[in-house]
Amino acid sequence: MSLFPFRRPRPASGEPSAAAIESATPRRWGRWALAVLIVAGLHVGAVRWIEHNRQPMHTPPGAPPVQVELLTPKPIAPPAPTPPAPAPAKPAAPPKPAAPAPAPAPAQKPAPAAAPVLTAATPQPDAPAAASGVAASAPAQQAASPASQTAAQTASQPATASGDKFSVPPTGELRYDTLVNGMMNQTGTIHWSNDGQHYEMVVSIPLPFVGPYVYSSKGHIDGFGIAPEQYTEQRGRRAADIAIFNRETKQIVYTKTPQNQPLADGAQDRFSVVMQLASLVRGAPDKYKPGVTRQFSVADNDSNEIWPIETVGDETVQARGGFTTARHFTRLPRKDGDRRKLDIWLAPSIGWLPVRILQTEPNGMQIELLWAGKLEAPPTEGHDVAPGTQAASEESAPAVPVEPPEPAADKP
After folding, report:
1. What is the distance of C-alpha 377 from the center of its chain?
2. How many CB atoms lie within 10 A of CB 293?
């Protein structure tokens, strides 16, 4: 028994004391906490660094380019007048032999009289030569009269050099592969007819289990280009909705809604605007550079609004016939929250016709038309239209120049 019962026994050699263990425990937990904080800080810094370096340093591809020019509808510029073909020169008639001089009359005593008055019947010196000169110059004056009249008419017309150059695509049956949400569907068609005075456009897109979507537009061609008179929209088996463009009252009337809206100059419907854009680009392709935005007044089946269509730039499109270069146009949002999109690609290899059309519905469904024909320009060119006039059909017979009438022969 120890003499000091209340004395704490000394630990064996090599074993830590309880006080040492108690003091070491907080230090150990502190070191672990510090290590955890350091690792967490390193992770947070690494995540921030990765996120910072993943941000693009340029404008993302989906964002529209910077707007550099805004175009509004304006009258169409007339095509450059072609000088009339010169009339073929006719050989000059040989001069007629001079009549023999009459025999001298017997001398008589002259009576005093007033000075003779010269009339057209009075023979003058060099009268045959003067008459032949007048006769020879008459055809030249008559041949020059059409040219002078054309120049006078051109000078009297108002200057419209600032108008839009316009070339309507020729008539054709356009075939497209249709895709719904990226899945290949049946072949669709765009029937386009243009005689220089009137046009008709019928777009047929087959959809499984729903029925074909058919969009029809017909009208004429005026001083602002394509001018719809009636637009019909039929989706599947539903009844057709019609919009009527009343040019007399300057109103757009709908069958889907009782409201009427004013009809603006150059107004289009949802599908004629595609050919209107193609006609403008065909007339002046160099004018539509990336960033150029053009406004169109477009009517749907129940409303009319402004569509800003912007030029994105030239891109490569893969169609059934291979790859081709096309100019990409996109419709900018019409209002906040606008989820419907429209993208159009026009290809110069097929005469600036649409090689691809992509429409995105508000519910996210995508309907795509992709060119299924040959990647070559149509055999005929479009019609250049002047304001207030109607272009003639290319198949019509060429104008025959009218020759001036021959000078009447002198009576004996």
Report:
1. 17
2. 20
CB 373 within 8 A of CB 350: yes
**What are the Cα distances from residue 346, in Å, to 80, 138, 205, 213, 295?**
25, 54, 19, 22, 18
User: Are 217 and 200 spatial neighbours (Cβ–Cβ below 8 Å)?
Assistant: yes
Tens of pLDDT along 45-65? 766 665 554 444 434 445 544
Residue 351 corresponds to which amino acid?
A: G
In this structure, what DSSP letter does residue 303 have?
-
From residue 404, give the alpha-carbon distance in Å to each of 26, 138, 409.
121, 9, 15
Q: Over the range 366-379, which residues count as b (16 or more CB within 10 Å of their CB) and which as e?
A: ebbbbbbbebeebe
Element (H, E) at 284: none
Q: What is the pLDDT of residues 134-164, one digit of tens each?
A: 344 444 444 444 444 544 443 334 334 457 8
Q: Report residue 256 as tokens.
A: 């889907």
Q: Which residues pair with 359 in a beta bridge?
A: 342, 367
The closest of 391, 386, 389, 311 to 352, measured between CA atoms, is 311
Rounded to whole angstroms, the maximal C-alpha distance in the chain is 203
- Give the rounded distance of the alpha carbon of 115 from its chain centre: 78
Q: Is the pLDDT of residue 132 over 60?
A: no
Question: What DSSP state is assigned to residue 387?
Answer: T
Q: Which amino acid is at 32?
A: W
> And the tokens for 354?
């649409």
Q: Between β-strands 198-205 and 241-246, what pairing exists: parallel, antiparallel or unpaired? A: unpaired
Beta bridge partners of 354: 346
Q: Are 79 and 386 in contact (CB under 8 A)?
A: yes
Cα(232)–Cα(272) distance, integer angstroms: 11
Separation CA 144–CA 315 (nearest Å): 52
The CA dihedral of 47, 50, 51, 53, to the nearest 10 degrees, is: 160
Q: Which of 199, 330, 324 is nearest to 277 (CA)?
A: 330
pTM more than 0.90: no
Q: Within 10 Å of residue 284's Cβ, how many Cβ atoms?
A: 13
Amino acid residing at 367: I
